[in-house]
Amino acid sequence: MAAEKKAFVLRINPDTLKELERWAQEEFRSVNGQIEYVLNEALKKRKKSPNPDKNVPTD
């Protein structure tokens, strides 16, 4: 059984959205699917980092 997905609002620069739409189309994904793919890849890369907490900004 697949995990339930959570919806949320994303505010994005119009030029960034256009590029994302083009990229998604090239890879035969929806824009939502492309965003999810990019985020998952970034998270995988972060987990492989020797110190994943090093990149987290602190206030």
Please describe what this structure looks like:
This protein has helices spanning 14-26, 31-48. The chain has 59 residues and is mainly α. The protein has a domain at 14-47. Helix 1 crosses helix 2. The longest helix has 18 residues, at 31-48.
List strands and helices in order, with pairings.
Blueprint: H1 14-26, H2 31-48
Helix pairs in contact: 1-2
GO molecular function: DNA binding
Organism: Larkinella knui
InterPro entries: Arc_rbn_hlx_hlx, Ribbon_hlx_hlx
Keywords:
59 residues; mainly alpha; 2 helices; Ribbon_hlx_hlx; DNA-binding; Arc family DNA-binding protein; DNA binding
In short:
This protein is mostly helical and 59 residues long. 53% of the residues lie in helices and 0% in strands. The protein has a domain at 14-47.
